[in-house]
Design a protein that fits this description.
It is a single chain. The chain has one domain. The protein has nine helices and two strands, in the order H-H-H-H-H-H-H-H-E-E-H. Helix 8 crosses helix 9. The relative contact order is 0.14. The chain is mainly α. It is globular.
Length: 202
């Protein structure tokens, strides 16, 4: 189940207390912060920075993915792309503007995806999955390709609720479905996320 719906009314651990947790419990706590509808922009930015650090470790990256971190990351990236593609003359959305906080969160979310992709593929390769690595010279797999592989292999939830104004969100009324991407779909999304991660926020 998508964590965003679980934490609309529930309590999450305050950010100041997460660092005192057992290291094995920290990934889930940061996922909860990102998934909460009540998390402020400042808290979300801090959580993304922490996830970016944790995702460099293969074991913690695995925990983050198992806890559903992609749900929140894809939510942020998807909403940014939705606003970027919005034609202001066609719809009258309540919040069509892209704020500096939106831009920063999207860049951080994309960077988290890139790091998770690298860690995910590193874990797979150490388990003997040489097929992917054999496609590239000297076994070096481009980061964008590693991200695509992760997006293809790790399903995540996406919002399927149809609304006239997607900038008005009622988490309690939203409907989500699991998305399992084909490899070509994952490659297309990986290209977009890679661009976002290096600041090409178009």
């Amino acid at each position: 189940m998508l964590r965003l719906t679980l934490h609309v009314t529930g309590k999450i651990i305050p950010l100041s207390q997460i660092h005192a947790l057992n290291p094995s419990e920290q990934p889930r706590a940061w996922v909860d912060v990102l998934a909460s509808a009540k998390t402020s922009n400042e808290e979300k930015a801090e959580a993304l920075e922490e996830v970016l650090i944790l995702a460099k470790d293969k074991q913690r990256a695995r925990i983050l993915l198992e806890e559903g971190i992609l749900d929140s990351l894809m939510w942020m990236i998807g909403r940014y792309r939705e606003k970027m593609n919005h034609d202001p003359s066609f719809d009258n959305w309540a919040h069509p503007e892209i704020t500096p906080e939106d831009t920063n969160a999207t860049r951080l979310a994309a960077s988290c995806c890139m790091t998770l992709g690298k860690s995910h593929c590193a874990a797979i390769h150490t388990e003997g999955d040489l097929l992917l690595m054999s496609l590239y010279e000297r076994g070096t797999v481009p980061e964008e390709r590693q991200l695509a592989q992760m997006l293809h292999e790790v399903p995540f939830h996406t919002r399927v609720t149809a609304t006239d104004d997607p900038t008005i969100i009622d988490p309690g009324q939203e409907v989500f479905a699991v998305k399992q991407m084909s490899l070509p779909q994952a490659e297309d999304l990986a290209r977009s996320i890679t661009a976002l991660s290096v600041g090409r926020l178009m």
